[in-house]
Write a structure and sequence with these properties.
2 domains, two-stranded antiparallel sheet, 14 helices, 11-stranded mixed sheet
C-alpha cells in the first residue's frame, strides 16, 4: 500500500532528481503541444482568406486576354463558367453551400471600374459583405441599385443616393461598403446585383469575343464544403471545368506559405514523436538513477516487512506524481508560449489570379498579402491529452522499473551496512 507522506517527503528531499524529471517532461510536453498548436494555427490561417467570404473553395477559369480594353471585359483569369457546368458542380457530394459572382473590368471613357455582380441574399461569397456596410443599405434584388466601395467612393466623391454610370448603364448607390478586410477576390469598386452584371456581360461585344456568355453564366464560384471532402471536391470540379480551371482551397494558401507549412501535419507529427521519445528516455534515465541510489532504502523497506507489491506501488506513485507535475508545468509553459506566438503576424500571399486589379495598371502587379495574427490556441482536447499522456508516461516508466525493484534482496544490499 502506498504511503503518501513518505512519497511526498522523498520527492521533496531529492529535489535535484525530482526537478530534473519534472522539467524534462514539462519541456517535452511543451514542445509536443506547441508544435501541434502551431500546425493547427497555420492550417486555420490558411483558411482565413476564404473564410472571410464564407467559402472553402473558389473556382475560376483562365482564358484569353481581351482584344480591346473598351467597355466591360473579362479578366483573363476569370472567364465564363457555363450554367450547365455550374449545375453539375452544385450537385457534387460534400457541398454545404454555394454562391456565384461575376467579375468585370469596365473601361469607360472617363474612368476604370472593377465591377462585381453578387447575389445579395447569399451568405456564401461576396454577399457576406452585408456586415461591412459603412453608410446606407445593402443591395436589394430588382432595384437597379449599386454599392460603392469606400475608397472608390471617396476618390470620386460618391455618396449614398447618388447615381453612377458604369458601362453605359446608370445605377443608384444604395450604400457604401468597406471591403478592405475581405479577401482580394471579393474586392471591387462597384457591386451590382448578379442579374444586372449578367446583362452587362451578355451585351458586351468584348466579352462575347473572348468568352461567349449567356444570362445564367458566371465566372466566379464560391463553395462551402465538408472539410474532409475539400480535396476530393477540388479534383471533381477540375474534371468538370477542364485544364484551365483555377481552384483555390486552404491547401493552396499553405503551399504559398512554403513547403514547410504545406507539410505541417507530417512535420508536427514527426517532431512531436521525436520530442516524446527523447522525453521518455530522459525521464526513464532519471528514474533509473533514482532507483539505483535508493537500493539500500528498498532493502530496508523489505527487511521491515514491505512486500514487493508495496515497494513497487510506492515507486510507481512517485513516478506518476512526478510526471503529472511535469505535464501540468508543461501545460503552463505552453500557455505562455502560445500567448507570445499569438502576437506574431503572418502574411499569406494571395495568388495573382485572385486579384481583381489588372496587372497592367499601376500597382496591379504588386504582390498582394492577407496579413493576420497567427491564431494560436490550445484545444481542451490537446490539453487533456497532454495530462493523460504525462500520467501514462509515469505509469509506464514506473512499471518498467518494477522488475528491478523485485530483484533487490535485503540480505544483499544490507550485508555491507
Amino acid at each position: 500500500m502506498m504511503n503518501l507522506e513518505y512519497l511526498l517527503k522523498e520527492l521533496y528531499f531529492r529535489k535535484r532528481r525530482t526537478l530534473t524529471a519534472i522539467f524534462s517532461l514539462a519541456l517535452g510536453i511543451c514542445i509536443l503541444i506547441t508544435i501541434n498548436a502551431l500546425s493547427s494555427a497555420y492550417t486555420e490561417a490558411a483558411r482565413m482568406p476564404l473564410k472571410e467570404i464564407g467559402a472553402d473553395i473558389t473556382v475560376q477559369r483562365a482564358g484569353n486576354v481581351p482584344e480591346n480594353l473598351v467597355g466591360p471585359v473579362f479578366a483573363c483569369s476569370a472567364v465564363t463558367i457555363k450554367s450547365d457546368e455550374i449545375k453539375q458542380i452544385r450537385h457534387l457530394q460534400g457541398i454545404q453551400g454555394f454562391g456565384q459572382a461575376l467579375l468585370l473590368w469596365v473601361f469607360d471613357a472617363d474612368r476604370f471600374t472593377i465591377v462585381l455582380g453578387i447575389d445579395p441574399e447569399n451568405p456564401v461569397g461576396p454577399g457576406i459583405l452585408r456586415t461591412q456596410m459603412t453608410h446606407g443599405i445593402f443591395l436589394e434584388k430588382g432595384k437597379n441599385q449599386a454599392l460603392a466601395e469606400v475608397s472608390y467612393a471617396k476618390n470620386y466623391n460618391i455618396q449614398t443616393g447618388d447615381n453612377v454610370t458604369v458601362g453605359g448603364k446608370t445605377y443608384q448607390i444604395s450604400g457604401i461598403v468597406d471591403a478592405s478586410k475581405a479577401t482580394k477576390i471579393a474586392v471591387a469598386n462597384i457591386y451590382l446585383d448578379m442579374v444586372d452584371a449578367q446583362k452587362m456581360a451578355k451585351e458586351s461585344k468584348q466579352v462575347q469575343n473572348v468568352s461567349p456568355f449567356e444570362s445564367k453564366d458566371a465566372n466566379l464560384l464560391f463553395i462551402k464544403a465538408n472539410p474532409k471532402q475539400i480535396d476530393a471536391l477540388a479534383r471533381s470540379i477540375k474534371d468538370i471545368i477542364g485544364e484551365k480551371a483555377s481552384i483555390t482551397t486552404p491547401a493552396s494558401f499553405l503551399k504559398h506559405l512554403g513547403s514547410l507549412f504545406s507539410l505541417s501535419d507530417k512535420f508536427s507529427l514527426a517532431t512531436s514523436l521525436m520530442a516524446l521519445v527523447i522525453t521518455v528516455l530522459i525521464v526513464l534515465k532519471t528514474m533509473a538513477g533514482n532507483l539505483a541510489e535508493r537500493s539500500n532504502e528498498i532493502g530496508v523497506l523489505k527487511a521491515v516487512g514491505w512486500s514487493n507489491k508495496d515497494v513497487v506501488s510506492q515507486f510507481l506513485g512517485e513516478s506518476i506524481l512526478q510526471c503529472l507535475a511535469g505535464g501540468i508545468l508543461g501545460l503552463i509553459f505552453t500557455l505562455i508560449a502560445t500567448f507570445l506566438l499569438g502576437h506574431m503576424q503572418v502574411n499569406i500571399p494571395i495568388p495573382w489570379e485572385m486579384s481583381p486589379t489588372p496587372h497592367f495598371l499601376p500597382g496591379g502587379g504588386d504582390p498582394v498579402f492577407k496579413t493576420l495574427q497567427l491564431p494560436v490556441t490550445i484545444s481542451w482536447r490537446l490539453a487533456a491529452f497532454s495530462i493523460i499522456l504525462s500520467t501514462v508516461i509515469g505509469a509506464v516508466t514506473g512499471g518498467l522499473l518494477s522488475r528491478h525493484i523485485a530483484r533487490i534482496k535485503p540480505s544483499e544490499v544490507l550485508k555491507n551496512e
